[in-house]
Amino acid sequence: MIERKHMSEVPMIQRIAAYIAILVGYFFYCYNFVIIDYVRPYLVEEYDSISLADTAQFYTWQSVGALIGALSCAWVASNFGKKSTLVVITALNGGATIINMMFTDYATWALMRFIIGISLGGYFTVAVSMMIGLFTPSVRGKLTAFASSMFSVALMAMGAYAAFITSIDAPWQSLMWVGGIPPLVAAALMIFLLPNDKKVIAYGEEEAAEQENAGAEKKKGSWGEMLSAPYRKLTLSCLLLAGLNFYGYQFFSGFVTTYLRQVREFDGATIGIIFSISAFGSLFGAWVWGAIADKYGRKVNALGFIIAGVMASVFFVAPSDVMIGSLNMLAILGLIYNFGLSASAVWGGYFSELFPPHLRNFGAALFHGGRIIGMWAPMVLVYIQERSDLETAMWGSPIIWIIAGLLWFSLPETLKGGIFYKEKSLKQANA
Predict the structure, then answer these.
(1) Do 148 and 60 contact (CB within 8 A), yes or no?
(2) Per-residue pLDDT tens for 40-63?
(3) Which of 7, 280, 329, 414 qualifies as a FRET site for 321, CA 20 to 30 Å off?
(4) Where do the domains of the chain lie, and which CATH numbers do they carry?
């Protein structure tokens, strides 16, 4: 048996460097997830074999891959190690993106987006599981929330870089190359910076290590165990909560620009301002909710969904011409709405904490697992819209957010000392 040291014995500078390396990979996980939306018009314009409908399917293939990646990489990491799995899928993310650029036909693009999706879904699962083991539970909320804010940072960086390459008349493919090369560099750095989970006991895994040292067989975990009697209710609740998150997001954010154009009849400039100001709420909101989760507990963040539900309702009934300072009131309402939604930035760590150490990878995977439920959201909204109107269909969003918030409140609190912490409740969930 290999003698393992505790994570506290790993120098703090190495753990910080490891977190930064994971964070870099996380940035490009976010970047490559949304890049297909940005380059869509260029694909249609330059590639005769790719139509607008084809580009929509690329996102579908990528989403299916993300679901498969999240579910499968949880098992792979449990059996072959988190570090090695994270290095491979980070390299796969960059490598598949580069291969993507070498072809112009639909079939290859669809295949590469599917493979990239696998790496993206897998990255979230393994990165979060490894990230929370680097430091004590008192900072996990902030660490995972800051990582989640990389989605907003990636969007802003992509927009700024796109503006730059346009100003120097560089090809649009430059956007794709940025998504390909840096992940390969990040994967190489991870080999040297990430602690080996086969040799180091992560924070939160001490009890499992003691049992292993006492001669107990090391538990590896499986989806069968996640769906067994002790954990079934918790697993299904997390999947439903994640699925409601995708539904609520699509029912509002997925169609808000269409709503502002068709229902409110705003011009493009006004829509852009409202959208940009609203999106800023997600960036600083993730940091705030991360700090709240570490101080008062993970369940307190469920209030964010209630806030989002209320703000979405007010957004629909607010007049179009009210200004607050130089900003349309809808921009402020949208900002508060996105601030509320960013409460879920702690889910990666929280879902992991809900389960025993050997099931952490599987717990983190439940976020993307919610896509089993959420991938149908756009079609459901369109179905309702065709039988009523867009605004009526979008009213489903505040209802969904409030239901999701109440469901979140029903889950156990994992932070000792948190407002809603009940040790008995958490033990029963993990019994």
Answers:
(1) no
(2) 778 888 888 888 777 767 877 888
(3) 280
(4) 8-204 (1.20.1250.20), 221-412 (1.20.1250.20)
